[in-house]
Structures are given as C-alpha cells and as structure tokens.
Amino acid sequence: MSAMSTLSTGAPYHIFAYSILFGSTVYQSFFVGITSFRALPRQHFAALQRKIFPPYFAMQAIIPAFLALTSPFPILSDKSSLYILAFTSVTALINLLSIGPMTVKLMTDRKAQETKEGKKYYDADVSAEMKVLNKKFGMIHGISTLVNLGTLFAIGAYGVTLAAALTKGFAV
Predict the structure, then answer these.
(1) pLDDT category, 76, cuts 50, 70, 90?
(2) Could you tell me the sign of the dihedral formed by the alpha carbons of 93, 25, 161, 76, in that order?
(3) 30, 35, 50, 109: most buried by Cβ count inside 10 Å?
(4) pTM of the model
(5) Count of structural domains within the chain
(6) φ, ψ for residue 120, nearest 5 deg
(7) Which residues of 151-171 are buried (b: 16+ CB within 10 A; e: fewer)?
(8) CA dist., res. 85 & res. 170, Å (int)
(9) Which residues constitute the domain of residue 129?
(10) Beta-carbon neighbour count of residue 172 at 10 Å?
(11) d(CA 28, CA 145)
C-alpha cells in the first residue's frame, strides 16, 4: 500500500491524534503549567489556567473516543486497549466536570476572602477561614494533579500497546 493510499485509512489519523493527545498532555503538565506559574503574577496565572483547562480536559476526553474509532488494529478484540482509552476519557471528564469547577469555586472563594480580610491568601497571618479555603484548594488541586497524572500514564500505556501493534505489523 502506498503512502498516499494510507490516507484513506484511519491509521495516519490515529497516529496524529495519539501524538496530539500524548504531546499536549506532557507539554501542559510539565512545561506550560510550571513555566506559567513561575513567570506570571498569581492572578494572571489563575486566569490563564481557567481558560486553558476546559478545552485541555475536553481534548483529553474526546481524543480517546476518536482513537477507539480509528484504530488500525482490532481494538475490540483487545479489551485492555479499550479499557485504557475509556479510563483516559473518564479521568479527563472528572477533571473537566467536577474537579476543575471545584478548583475555580475555591479560587473565587479565596479571592472574596482576600477582599474581606485585606490580605492575600498566602500571607502568614490569614484568618482561620482562609486557612480552611487554602487547605481545601490544596487538596482539590492535588487530586486534580493526580488524576491528570493517571490520565498521562494511561495515555502512555496505550502508546505501548500501539507500539506493540506497529512492531507486529498490522494490516492497514
């Protein structure tokens, strides 16, 4: 089969989608987030994250379904691949629909408490209310990070499955 005729199959689109999913997850998790946190004032960093995370988590949720539909090998006969892709979508949806909104609400609550107290949430002598909000935010943010890492590991596991199929030489 020629390279051009391969375009009429799902295989190249599968590889492109997987590459986008894995690459963007690594890039956001280990480069963009960390660099933005270090480079931007806190309120600008928070505003950026509020804009980036919904489409980022939506992409993490949608692409695995696309991968299942465009798989160049019989994915339904390989249940572990299907489970990995489902896990990836579910963890992204958890961040998109549950943890993300909780994080935004806690950030909004902390901002309101800052205004009430006339202090920043990270000042040493904040109120007990602010300490509770800080603790909740830290916990929810930590859970979100762990869920995102679970998503990344699942995407990596799928990549190993995909590489195994490529090395076996599947029919396209």
Answers:
(1) low
(2) positive
(3) 109
(4) 0.86
(5) 1
(6) -80, 155
(7) bbebbebbeebbeebeeeeee
(8) 20
(9) 3-168
(10) 14
(11) 12
Which residue is it, tokens 């408490």?
113
CA distance 20 to 92: 15
Q: In the numeric block, which tokens belong to residue 64?
A: 């695995």
Q: Residue type for 140, please?
A: I
Q: Is 63 exposed, middle or buried (0-12, 13-18, 19+ CB in 10 A)?
A: buried
Question: What pLDDT digit, counting tens, does each position of 39-70 carry?
Answer: 999 889 989 999 999 999 999 999 999 998 88
